[in-house]
Amino acid sequence: MRTPLIAGNWKMYKTVAEAVELVEALLKEVEVGYADDRQVLICPPFTALYPLAPLLAESPVALGAQNMYPASQGAFTGEVSPVMLQEIGCSFVILGHSERRQVFGETDELISKKVQTAIDYGLTPVLCIGETKPQRDGGEAEAVTLGQLRAGLGGLAAEQIQDIVIAYEPVWAIGTGDTATPADAQAMHAAIRGALSSHYGPETADAVRILYGGSVKPDNVDTLMAQPDIDGALVGGASLQAESFLRIVNFR
Ligand code: PEP
């Protein structure tokens, strides 16, 4: 049985003061009416991770980073290591987000190295994969997405990927208000699970959570979450306000 995961990707939004305010608002509600049949994760900017960690330590909300460098330490100016993230209480890390791929030129090879290193240091990767609009229009959506999946998981063994989280995020749906239909999202999630099953076996494929991301909002989360292979959501814009994120967390 896969526990649904609702994850907020705050991107480069929220100062420390704003982040603390949002977390306090989330915790007030989560602690009152929290359904423990689901897991909640927030991924704030690096600067807010350390001050938020003690607020979240005794709460049901997990803390994650949006990126990391695949080494424990070293001369990598401007980067943050998995050891540093672990030390301050992060348990997840988003890797391979389309903004990292497109704006920062991250390759499948680098992302695969990051996934492997995150696992080595006890962080759960949230590996993002998904096609662009021209790729979808050209009939390549599945080939591209599954190609990124295979490349991102590289040489990992079945027991290493059981706890990994995959996020299918069609690039054309991110931040655009243009969500994949529940049927299209389900079809891709089923294809992802099928690919995992052929490579790692059905038991492992059944254990892996596959999130949908791309303009998830309070008014579309319920139909998306009703799909059998959608195990949660990676939420950008709608995770920046307590009310909309809480409604998504409380999907029905
Ligand atoms: C994201 O950044 O991962 C994302 C899905 O953003 P949005 O929900 O704003 O489309």
What does this structure look like?
This protein has a single domain, classed as Aldolase class I (TIM Barrel, Alpha-Beta Barrel). Helices cover 45% and strands 15% of the residues. The chain has helices at residues 16-33, 46-56, 82-87, 98-103, 108-120, 133-137, 141-153, 158-161, 182-200, 202-207, 221-225, 242-249, and strands at residues 5-9, 39-43, 61-65, 92-95, 124-129, 165-168, 209-213, 232-235. An 8-stranded parallel β-barrel has the order 1-2-3-4-5-6-7-8, surrounded by 5 helices. It is globular, with a radius of gyration of 17 Å.
The spatial strand order of the largest sheet comes to 1-2-3-4-5-6-7-8
Number of domains: 1
Order of helices and strands: EHEHEHEHHEHHHEHHEHEH
Rounded Rg: 17 Å
Summarize the SSE layout with pairings.
Layout: E1 5-9, H1 16-33, E2 39-43, H2 46-56, E3 61-65, H3 82-87, E4 92-95, H4 98-103, H5 108-120, E5 124-129, H6 133-137, H7 141-153, H8 158-161, E6 165-168, H9 182-200, H10 202-207, E7 209-213, H11 221-225, E8 232-235, H12 242-249
Parallel strand pairs: 1-2, 1-8, 2-3, 3-4, 4-5, 5-6, 6-7, 7-8
The protein binds phosphoenolpyruvate.
Short summary:
45% of the residues lie in helices and 15% in strands.
What key phrases describe this protein's structure?
8 strands, TIM Barrel, eight-stranded parallel barrel
